[in-house]
Specification:
The protein is an alpha+beta fold and 208 residues long. The chain is 34% helix and 23% strand. Keywords: Acyltransferase, Transferase. One of its GO terms (molecular function) is acyltransferase activity, transferring groups other than amino-acyl groups. Pfam families: Acetyltransf_1 (PF00583).
């Protein structure tokens, strides 16, 4: 690794350390908020607002990524999440504002070590809850609503990946019934691959 590579690596790691303090801060979620909260599928009219929310979330959780580049799934939001046979995107609103989101899209088999050929597999993406609404089960409620859509659609495997530098992320997904299938050993991301079979899912609130 030359000097420039070391410098770039140091910048990425510094930004990851910053992300550790942003991902799961304390919550002030209250019962009154829960009573006025709605979870729904995104409509065509809500696409611009939803993309803006998702990009703000991405910039907060992954400050090391280029915020000026719109990811492919967001650039083709309607085709991927609304018109696509295996796409779904849910949002939670409070007082008319989006406060949380999660979605799934067809898995694209880009990781050669994962074998989902012949199995109807979707990838869970873009789970994010605004900091002031964390800590009282909103993320789990949002995921439960998404799982219901997956089961109704006959999805065979729910796949996702996360990273150890996001505190609490792996444990959260284990609570939702996911198990680790592979961990990459690169020095930056340590990408952790996880899966869940909807019909066999056993939610584990204790994360054990």
């Amino acid at each position: 690794m030359d000097t420039d590579e070391r410098s770039a690596m140091g910048t990425i790691i510094t930004r990851m350390k910053l992300a550790q303090h942003l991902y799961y801060p304390a919550s002030s979620f209250t019962r009154s908020v829960a009573m006025t909260l709605t979870i729904q599928e995104v409509t065509r009219a809500e696409i611009p607002e939803t993309i803006e929310f998702a990009m703000r979330a991405r910039a907060e959780v992954f400050p090391m990524l280029d915020a000026s580049v719109l990811p492919a799934d967001l650039a083709a939001f309607e085709q991927v999440y609304l018109s696509g046979e295996r796409g779904k995107f849910l949002i939670a609103r409070h007082d008319g504002k989006i406060i949380a989101a999660v979605g799934y899209l067809p898995f694209n088999h880009r990781f050669p070590q994962l074998d989902y050929i012949g199995r109807d597999t979707v990838e869970i993406v873009r789970l994010y809850v605004m900091p002031q609404f964390r800590g009282d089960g909103l993320a789990s409620r949002l995921c439960e609503a998404l799982w219901a859509h997956a089961e109704a659609g006959g999805i065979e495997v729910l796949y996702l990946h996360t990273h150890p530098f996001l505190p609490g992320a792996i444990r959260f997904w284990e609570k939702q019934g996911f198990s680790v299938t592979d961990v990459e050993t690169d020095p930056v991301w340590n990408t952790t691959h996880m899966e869940c079979v909807p019909g066999e899912r056993q939610r584990n609130p204790e994360g054990k």
